[in-house]
Amino acid sequence: MRKRIISAAILLMIYAPIIALGGNLFKVGITITGILTFRDILLLIKKENNIPLAIEIISYVLVGGLIISSEYFMAVLAGIFIVMFAPMLLLREKEYSFDAAVRLIMSIILFGYAFSILYNLRDISLHSFIYLALIPILTDTFAFVGGKFLGKHRLMPKVSPNKTIEGTLSGLLAGSLFPTIYYVCFVDQSEKFFDILIVSIILSILGQIGDLVFSAIKRRFNVKDYSNLIPGHGGLLDLFDSLVFVSLSFSIVSMLI
After folding, report:
1. In the chain, what are the domain boundaries?
2. Helix/strand/coil percent split, the chain, to 5
3. Is pTM, for the whole model, over 0.85?
4. In angstroms, rounded to a whole number, what is the distance separating the alpha carbons of residues 145 and 156?
């Protein structure tokens, strides 16, 4: 618990000025974060698939390119398919397989697109970015606290043994109510509170689903954490798994409303 708090405090001190200042500093920060988050899933892929070093390095470059390439997004996307599949012509099956290529492509697109949404949202508005970030942060924090002090009924023990129904509801309440209040106070005061609350509830629920999905992936590969980069938390993907799903869900909701 102490390690979790100390790590969270250090991360807050690192990310707060990066987010507040924006610009090129944020561009660099979000790109590095996206690449390191992608690295966590790449480590799991390498447990079952051989990935040549050159392709691994190219994968990192493609994730970074996808994050900051809003103007050339489709071109980068096409390049990902070409670059990831073409080496199969030169390498033997055991050196680089079709399965490895597909897993890499899906992971590059998933994390590249998720973090590109965050990059573009911060470029548009600091307050909009904070609103979106508050949803998974408060959902995860209050789910943890609520589960610790109120939790009695396990939610999905085979997927995530420590998650409880009480914690989930606590996270949903805090992760939808407080961001909604922030939105109507700082983002757009003309929006109806109830409408934003519904959107926040949907995003909070999907964030918790994302957390469970990435927990299921860890169980599939029989690992406790994605990596040991952050003491008390694991890897960046352990920390940002909900944020990945929330950002992807936000892009869908934005197109529908």
Report:
1. 22-124, 125-257
2. 80, 5, 15
3. yes
4. 17
